[in-house]
Amino acid sequence: MYPLLFRAVLSRFDPEFAHHAGMAVIRVLGVPPFSWATRAVTRPDPSLSVEALGLTFPSPFGIAAGFDKNAVGVRGLAALGFGHVEVGTVTAIPQDGNPKPRLFRLIADRAVINRMGFNNEGADAAARRLATLRRGAPDTVIGVNIGKSRVVEVENATADYVASATRLAPLADYLAVNVSSPNTPGLRGLQAVETLAPLLRAVKAASGSTPLLVKIAPDLPDDEITAIAQLAVDEGLAGIIAHNTTISREGLLTEAAVVEAAGAGGLSGAPLKERSLQVLRLVRDAVPEDFCVIAVGGVETPSDVQERLDAGATLVQGYTAFLYRGPFWGREINRGLIALRRRAR
């Protein structure tokens, strides 16, 4: 049903407009009695629960940052069966992001190019919503992804991240430092170990007891990925999120002219699958067994998720395939994982 709706109707709308329309529906699904009815058919099987970061995740599969930038759809996404929701990216200072259009579908590749530019309402607005969520949905696992405000110079990035961490860490189940988006000038330069180490140290101090993770880019050389993984362990972080979108355009099925017309931005979706597995294995080999590794990139089916778990992921996140699979994607993944595990016995 949904694939037909997507082809006939949704694919004709501007992608960003379609996303906001979808979020409006998701917000409704998070409100009783709609949430009760939704949870009745989407609740993950108890056997899928995962203990990580000192928390209990009802499913290993969650929604990646970028989908709910302002913490407005958390209850609806949880009702749809996702084991956790990572909100953001949130910046200390509210910002509009890059000029529109800034989100493009590559339907032949089941992929998306975005150059959103951390459009969000800022840390104070997110904190107010999270405080309300903590009262109304205390069992929902909520991560908060923080990034650098665009108006802040790179040399002042640490103080900017610390400001966000101080405001948001007390309200988050975990905090993720995003230094890997390709859509904020100079941001990826912060991944250099000599720059990243003091930044993570300062943010960790500001985060208190809240678990801190760092989100890396897939475009880094393998040795730099290993070095960051080792740095995260040395600095006492709780985990790594591997990984963000890519600036690569290799191996796409979409016509080159269409890809070129979309322009700069991060590519996400099915084309990242192979590199995602490579990065996951690099990180897993570089960190202790009990270190949390969240795999992101190219995930679409239950088999994709199980493959990441088998390769050492503690948890798995998705985003882009929601566009192509529809609102019951989380349920599809959870039920598929149960079926795969039963067949493997």
Keywords summarizing the entry:
single chain; 345 residues; eight-stranded parallel β-sheet; alpha/beta; 41% helix
Describe what this molecule looks like in 3D.
It is a single chain. This protein is of the alpha/beta class. 41% of the residues lie in helices and 16% in strands. The protein has helices at 2-8, 15-29, 34-42, 74-79, 123-136, 157-168, 193-207, 222-234, 256-262, 273-286, 302-310, 320-325, 329-344; strands at residues 50-52, 55-57, 61-63, 85-90, 103-106, 111-114, 142-146, 174-178, 212-216, 239-242, 266-269, 292-296, 315-318. An 8-stranded parallel beta sheet has the order 3-13-12-10-9-8-7-4. The chain has a 3-stranded antiparallel beta sheet with strand order 5-6-11, covered by helices on one side. The longest helix has 16 residues, at 329-344. The model has no long low-confidence stretch (mean pLDDT 94).
Radius of gyration: 19 Å
β-strand number = 13
Q: In percent terms, what proportion of residues is strand?
A: 15-25%
Count of discrete alpha- or pi-helical segments spanning 4 or more residues: 13
First CA to last CA: what distance?
A: 32 Å
Biggest pleated sheet:
8 strands, parallel
Walk across the major sheet and give the strand order. Answer: 3-13-12-10-9-8-7-4
Oligomer designation? single chain
Element order: H for helix, E for strand:
HHHEEEHEEEHEHEHEHEHEHEHEHH
- The overall average pLDDT, rounded, is 94
Shape: globular
Structural class: alpha/beta
Helix percentage range:
40-55%
Which ranges are low-confidence, i.e. pLDDT below 50, for 5 or more consecutive residues? none
